[in-house]
Amino acid sequence: MGRLIVIEGLDGAGKRTLADGLTAELAARGHSVARTAFPRYADDIHAELVGEALRGRHGDLGESVHGVAVLNALDRRAAAEPLRADLRSYDIVLLDRYVASNAAYGAARLHQDAHGDFVAWVRELEIERFALPRPDLQILLRVPVDVAARRAEHRERTEVDRGRDNFESDSALQQRCGEVYAQLAAENWWSPWVVVDGADRVDFADLVDEHVMAPGR
């Protein structure tokens, strides 16, 4: 059975870059890697609706914190069996965002922290009711909000179809979200976490040795 590794962080934190680096390091060591990024905008109708709602479509759906969260959760529920199949076939299954992103962003939108009702509701829905695969490790890629915003702006200018949505453009929301993420990581919410400084160069070899493939993880 493979290991499920999740990368979490703010929009523009550099999650895809970290995933690329980890994939290359793991492949160089002979490990097979499968990757999925949530929301799966191109592969799941629920994720597609989320993307449209956060860009102003579908009336007031984008304003509903629980409505958006349910759609994101249904996207992951639909991916649960493919994820389990990947875990049977690959050494590492690497995810860009997972359940904690739903918890952190929803709590931040409601001005709650990690101990509020919203995070508890996400746990009940996705972890207990949907029984999604539990991560072996969750990596929080921590960067200052202004750094993440600059990276997101650059991505918007240089990549086709990567315009920022309402979440990504709200710096106060991103700040609150970062605080919730930090609480989740500090408490090892659902599974073990490690915090990586995304503002500096990441040593992928050390990250793999000390955390991703460390005995007992």
From TrEMBL:
GO molecular function, one term: dTMP kinase activity
InterPro entries reported in the protein's UniProt record: P-loop_NTPase, Thymidylate_kin-like_dom, Thymidylate_kinase
EC number(s) per entry: 2.7.4.9
Keyword vocabulary terms for this entry: ATP-binding, Kinase, Nucleotide biosynthesis, Nucleotide-binding, Transferase
Source taxon at top rank: Bacteria
Keyword Signal in annotation: no
Claim: ATP-binding is one of the keywords in the record: yes
Residues covered by the Thymidylate kinase-like domain: 7-190
Gene3D superfamilies, per database record: P-loop containing nucleotide triphosphate hydrolases
Reactions accelerated catalytically: dTMP + ATP = dTDP + ADP
Pfam families linked to this entry: Thymidylate_kin
NCBIfam families xrefs: PRK07933.1
Family: Belongs to the thymidylate kinase family.
Stored PANTHER family: THYMIDYLATE KINASE, UMP-CMP KINASE 2, MITOCHONDRIAL
Main function: Phosphorylation of dTMP to form dTDP in both de novo and salvage pathways of dTTP synthesis.
Name recorded for this polypeptide: Thymidylate kinase
